[in-house]
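Re: folding output
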Amino acid sequence: MFNFIFQNPVKIVFGKGQIAAIACEVPQGARVLVTYGGGSVEKNGTLAQVRNALKGRAIVEFGGIGPNPTYETLMKAVELGRKEKIDFALAVGGGSVIDGTKFIVAAIPFDGEPWDILSKAASIKMALPFGTVLTLPATGSEMNCGAVISRKETKDKLVFLDPKVFPLFSVLDPTTTYSLPPRQVTNGIVDSFVHVMEQYLTFPAHAPLQDRFAESILQTLIEVGPKTLANPQDYDARSSLIWCATMALNGLIGQGVPQDWSTHMIGHELTALYGLDHGQTLAMLLPANMRVRQKAKHAKLLQYAHRVWNVHESSERNMIDEAIKQTAAFFEAIGAPTTMKDHGLTCDVEGVLAQLKRHNLTALGERRDVTPDVFRQILELI
């Protein structure tokens, strides 16, 4: 196991009716910027619960943060926050809203061009405090310090990480997810699954506890994912799905082990170029990545086949093939296609490679051996 330092300061407030607890978490004198996406939080009553919990505080609302939050939209919120002298933010939504809010709270006090936070990894000296009310389990953003932001003008989709943008608290009420469209639930299941795989499916690092934590999340997603799609108001299934998504990327399972993240980095480029949902890109890329890199991932693929899918084939090669097939079949079964053709698209391999090179993403993976030649092989399989 590698050396590590682990600290996660996020307070989780979990369960039905817990939005009311915001009243105890947000300072009484705060000037609060409430951020959200479309009209779903208004229609399902989540925003009304938030407003009620924030009574007595000055509130400014900013809606319209869509999937793959854009710099162009978020800068409007930054300007509003500065004008209104906001000193606290509350993100009400899924990972896109939470990611966007992380950028907003970092950009409001930032001295300089806020795009530098993403494009140049500019240091963030401070960020406004904020909390979240999660309505879409997927990204784990409610319990980590990372965000992914797009810029339409340049077709960039970039990541930033900074401990100053950990949420102070996150409210996880499974009932807020009941009205989600099936496509969003599917994307969330896939995203959570691949988050785990990026930290688990690498090479053995003598970290059996982290492995078993990871395997338990994967097994739980396989079990409850179809249940929550079949019955959106199954509270127990939704509870497990939300907690899986949070645990998949709150840092715990990634401590002391190698990590990959090549599937995500390639997926970001597909989203930027084709407008595909993040989860849709991952469902195509993970099985392809596993097939192309099965030699380098041989030991962990065998462990994955045995422990997660209970595969016992006649040969190691057959075990690995079956595990990859079952992974792709799981994605297909929950409504996530695994080829570009299924989306009515053809992958412009050279165009994707050019984007990866432009972003200096030419040596990815746990061994930094995912080069443009490997990218090409992966992309040709989707």
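--- second protein (sequence, then structure) ---
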Amino acid sequence: MCLTKTERTKPEDPSEWMRQAYPELRRIAAQQFHRERSHHTWQPTELVHEVFLRLSKCGPEKYANRAHFFAAVARAMRRTLIEHARKRHAKKRGGAWHKVSLDEADLVGINVPDFVALDAAFERLYVFDARLHQIAELRVFAGLSTHEIAITLKRGNSTVRRDWSIAKTWLQRDLEDCRQ
């Protein structure tokens, strides 16, 4: 297993974590926007910078490890995208929410996702099973692969793959139930 620079040197300072992980975070943000509508008003760099600002204002003072850092980034990215979606969908801005079923999109390739509905589903998943929630959050909002999640959470690939499958199925059913 090859360790990344971030894993070899475990910085405690949040700005050092962001500096070391910036290229990876930029890639993750680009994946998020690849799933968004084509005329999105933000760029991936802006999302990463917004997440950095959010974490510098109200994030942890120190990160214990890579899992802690990426969990905080995933939550901040999720909240940032959800707030942006809520603003976009506000009635004074035209409303007309568009719900996307996970059957149509397969979480990893969502086109124009309804982040508000997805956020509510994630909250319900957390109540159902916090471990599944963490894996799904790292997969969907941090864009980590099964292998990257396994390394980050110090779990086996097959365990993460199984838990991701369960979480994805659970989220699909939850969103379908909410649609009906």
